[in-house]
């Protein structure tokens, strides 16, 4: 019990810190700006953000959502990203516990938040984030298999990555974006590592969520049939639905197939 509480606390604190950095990534990467220089500053008056105001969530509350110098409103999305990242990190910690797989899926969680919000902002999944994530996934997960002396999860992940790449490449001829095609193998590798059930649920859930949201937007006349809707957030949401729910959903489906005993 104590170890679990410690894991949740560490994951939450790490999530807050990573979420603060993700706000920088989400703002600067689409603009081609450096993530290092200059330091955190107000985009309106260029005043440097004071260290005490850089504390995740609390800094925004302390400032009451306004720049300390020019009083320009600061979007509420900043603390929401920080708190949301912390919550997702805790959930990933609960899913994997103290395991060697945990860092890999924490990284995926961070990348998912950054990519989803960038795609919503500019309808693009930057190569600067997606492509290096392949190397990170391999570096974090392959040694786990090597240490266990079992490469089946790696092989399954690679096969799933290729399968999803081919699938998305084919449907790209009917309008799927190139960024989605590049993201698909990354998600395939992570989901394939968990099992084929996770791959099937993750892929299906992405299209289901995208279709449902699209239908709602059409019904509310917030979009038309010609409107471009970023698909990356739904791919990522579907993948994490599979990460958390593939096992219980698989068990539930298996129980349906088992004839009841008298």
TrEMBL record:
User: What GO MF terms are annotated?
Assistant: aspartic-type endopeptidase activity; methyltransferase activity
Localization recorded for this chain is:
Cell inner membrane; Cell membrane
One GO cellular component term of this record is:
plasma membrane
Q: Which residues span the membrane?
A: 6-27, 104-123, 129-148, 155-176, 196-219, 231-250
InterPro entries in UniProt: Peptidase_A24A_bac, Prepilin_IV_endopep_pep, Prepilin_pept_A24_N, Prepilin_peptidase/N-MTase
The UniProt record lists the Prepilin peptidase A24 N-terminal domain at: 13-96
Q: Which family does it belong to?
A: Belongs to the peptidase A24 family.
Query: What is the name attached to this protein's record?
Result: Prepilin leader peptidase/N-methyltransferase
